[in-house]
Amino acid sequence: MSSTVRTWLQRSPLFRSAVLAGTIALASIPAAQAASDFTPLPGTWIVSAEQDGKPGRGMAIDVQDGVLVMQVYNYRANGTATFHLAVGNIDGNQVAAPLKSYRGGRYFGSGPLSGVEDGDAGEVRIEFTSATQAQLRFPGEPTVAIQRFRFENTPASALPSAYWLMSMQDSSGKAVYSAIALSGLDTSTGPAMAMALPNGTQIQVSCSYSATLQGFNCSNGSATPAVRLQFQTALHQLSGSAQLDGSSYQLVGQRMLSPDGYDSLVFSDTTPVPASGTWIVTGEKNGQPGRGMAIDVQTGTLVMQVYNYQADGNATFHLGVGAFASGQASAPLKSYQGGRYFGSGPLSGTEASTAGEVFLDFSSPTRGHIRFPGEGAVAIERFQFAPVAPDPASLLGHWTFHDTTNKETAHVALTQVDGTAATTAGGGVRCSFLNPSTGQVRCVETFTISGRGSVYLKDYRFVLQADTGSGKALQAGELARSDVLPDDSSTQKNSLLALRTMDRRGMKLGLGTSF
To answer: Over the stretch 81-93, which tens digit does the pLDDT of each residue have?
Structure first.
């Protein structure tokens, strides 16, 4: 293992080294239902056949806790721009929902205004075939293919430069191994990936792109333990298969850091990249229809759709595209006219006007500030419509814990709520919020030893951020007392990494294990 990889294992400074530097308000939410092998990736989606390099229509899709929220930016029959909102349960990878329209909300510089519902255009139906592809039928139109829009300039054959938290699971979905991995290394034999298991084992695999696989084959040759990986990546997700010492596993991974910035708080000493999906103005959460944003960052470019209104009350949208660096971006907010409306057939839009410049500054992947034209800077946040702290239901699901203190991978399936805690089926592991305002979580498991009393088998403390977490794993075997919280000051920071691989509805997150 190279010294560069060891530096990476000491946390984020490698990001500033040559290895990476040279590369590179809504409707009420109903209860969700059926499980799925994947979760559609949040962000900008497009109709596959409508990519013609001209302004057109598109969708911002967000899925949380089995519920889809989709904004459609399109046009009216008179050529003016508008947007529609659909909210519905995903059931068996399918969803059907009315496309509602609104009017009367805020326009740039207007001050407080709440919108009202203004009818619906009919029902939209979607069947997702993977985390990045689906079949969609708008009102009055035939079914068409849609896909997650990728505007990054990285060729598909290039191994991404990124840090990943990976979970290797058996056929039942139980995590057996975990690893922190750095992909995109350049070696004398070509692109490579470095991996570190929680027990300290370090592995480097050489990788090659397979056009047939549309992904990567990686191997460490004759070295031990023998490792073989096959996987695909899609933006911040990774999925595939792994062989470790002759045993086969399903492989899933979540990006923690890329040249754009950090996704995981473990790298919070660098600058953040905003999470893709729906964002709202924090001070405008009043339970009434309003304005919002869909934000997407890929390889140094930010794309943002703003769903807002005109001074006459009509709904409209603006598009901003600009360079993203050091957690910041600015872009002109452009409006368009003349594109497709529901049932219209082929129409290409044209640029109509520019409302002015928008400025964004992100303090974390889920928080930031925005300054719209004619307005002061205001706080914005990633819109969370799944349960959030202090609700213990926000902790439910299957978790992989990468524990370097006890040198192990732990699989914890939190399936029920007991008071203020989310617990495993038998109640053996209990997870609850120590500090809901900061997302601080503690998970404990105790065991009674004759003559000694209860000791901790697990004492995990981490900060939750959506489906990942980072914090500390205390040494197992500490005496468990109800009146004293064991001191963690001597425990190494980031000795615990957490990854939720399945939500409480049984939906596998990200690309899942359908690869």
So the answer is: 999 999 999 998 9
